[in-house]
Design goal:
The structure holds 2 protein chains of 2 kinds. Chain A is an alpha/beta fold. Chain A contains 11 helices and 12 strands. Classes of the chains: A alpha/beta, B mainly alpha. The interface between A and B is medium-sized, with 25 and 17 residues. The complex binds adenosine-5'-triphosphate (ATP) and magnesium ion.
Amino acid sequence: MQVSTKQVLLSVENLKKYFPLKIPWTQALLKRERPTVKAIDDISFNIKKGETLGLVGESGSGKTTTGRVIIRLIEPTSGRILFDKKDISKLSKENLRRARKDFQMIFQDPMASLNPYMRIGKTVSHPLEIHKIGTPAERKEKVLSLFEKVNLIPAKEFFNRFPRQLSGGQRQRVVIARAVVTNPKFIVADEATAMLDVSVRSQILKLMIDIKEDLGLTYLFITHDLASAKYICDRIAVMYLGKIVEIAKTSDLFKEPLHPYTRILMGAVPIPDPKLKRSKIIPKGEIPSPINVPSGCRFHTRCPYATKICSEEEPELVEHQGRLVACHLFDKK
Amino acid sequence: MANTTNTNYGNQMLSSRIGRGFRQLMGDSSGVMTFIGLILLSLFVLMAIFAPYISPYSPVEPSGAPLLSPQWGHIMGTTNLGYDVFSRFIWGSRMALLIAVIATSIAAFIGIPTGLLVGYAGGVTDRIVTMIMDSVYTFPGLILAIAIAAMLGPGVLNISLSIAVVYIPTYYRVIRSQVSTIKSELYVEGARSIGAKNMTIIGKYILPNVLPSTIVVLSMNIADAVMTEAGLSFLGLGIPPPVPDWGYDLAKGQQFLLQNDWWMVVFPGIAIILLVLGFSMFAEGMDEYLNPNIGEKR
Ligand SMILES: Nc1ncnc2c1ncn2[C@@H]1O[C@H](COP(=O)(O)OP(=O)(O)OP(=O)(O)O)[C@@H](O)[C@H]1O
Ligand SMILES: [Mg+2]
């Protein structure tokens, strides 16, 4: 790929995640092959140190699964995950547990990602406790200063509160504080702002950018909101039905989306000025089931430019004008 | 296999049905119900604690002529051996509460950790243990207790143990079904993502979230244990006489009911009913207080 491996923090190679479908065991005995949900179907990408890579796509395209697999909250079916040049997909349980202080995840729903029976001070200091960092007094000090950084002020008062006593935005601040308390190198932010009020959303985005600069973080920023992706990401990967169909610099992608799917997504971005409203191209029909993936290019069933080859041959993610795209329209002849 | 996903504490628990009936009767005033339950409970607990000071006579020695009807000096009459029924009424609360509490503690001590570990582990272990627990659960409680009590013989601990066996599956089922939903909550995944060990996750992230329903099961359970204990000693499988025990007194009194000596039956009976009611009302009230949305699901 185009980046020299020196600066690469995370490199994902041929990653797959198939979920076996739950079927009655009587049927399972009869069938040799169990049907699977192909949530991620062979993706490769890398993220440079200090970079924010966006991962966008429709609901069900496998974004959350990608986030979970690359920090091994769930096990990959196959593929390699190189984090800081170490293959974390091969780490033993105990080594993985120890390594977790270096990569964290911010979940979509701040209401559900905090233990309702744990005070938020404890919630944020718990990672330090688990990884035996500092004395109790030092931990408290660290948490209080972090609370101030994420604007939970007065920090001392917030320290003893329970999640139910906080607003959604405040909870997401707690989640962010917990994610960064161990000074990780890498954070997966899964739709970190999707469940928040529009007014709070930009504050949280700003906070994430500030924190990133302060601590020298690297983000995988998962979202289906292209506006926030444009705001925060250096590069964007577009995902469709378990595959990455295009990766490009944010500015390039918004200037000239290559893949038909990306173009359609762009058309669906809400434009604030009603006079400028572009004609919306909405993909025909529903996203196909990840159990029975269409043959050839998996987007051909909804693609306005589909030709015969599209239903027969799966396009590779190839370079085109310094960008990566997987579409027969850009095949090098 | 039984469906255990909803927070139903099981219809095997008689007390839960009693409590629910009261809840319907009381409508919105479940606070009143909890309060009445609490008062009943406190009365019996105080009675048990201060039995030596408030009972007028020794419960295990004759204190008057046999079979005196209720009168001044023996307000609940005397038994066929001349024991004071009121004194046995008071002292009986000790045995009832003692065995109920020990039995419930044993059941909780085994059922809760098993439910936590097995629910968290899932998989084959879960299926096997749940199958065993379900088969115990569907077995009629009193009959199971009778069988075990007959095997173990009399004695406080043996009786408690045989009652405990009946209620272990109740804890197990309630805890397991909650754990299997809670373990897929985002905050549990969050705990894993910060590198928490499984035991830490169970202890700090799952247990606190199942504890409220445990309290409800606990108090319903005590109520049922009181009834089961009375049943066992009614059948002569309980604490050997002359230790004051309501179930035994009930059985004894029944022999004299035909000759119209009603007081030997009625007063121990009232004691059992009131204590069970107290726990049931309290439990149901707590249930509504701790899980305000469960009422609608039923
Ligand atoms: N634990 C699981 N078991 C079975 N299938 C799963 C599991 N988790 C996800 N899937 C399936 O994998 C596919 C991708 O899901 P995923 O949650 O990664 O999508 P997403 O892009 O994050 O969508 P959204 O925008 O709705 O969050 C979906 O079809 C989903 O049903
Ligand atoms: Mg998602």
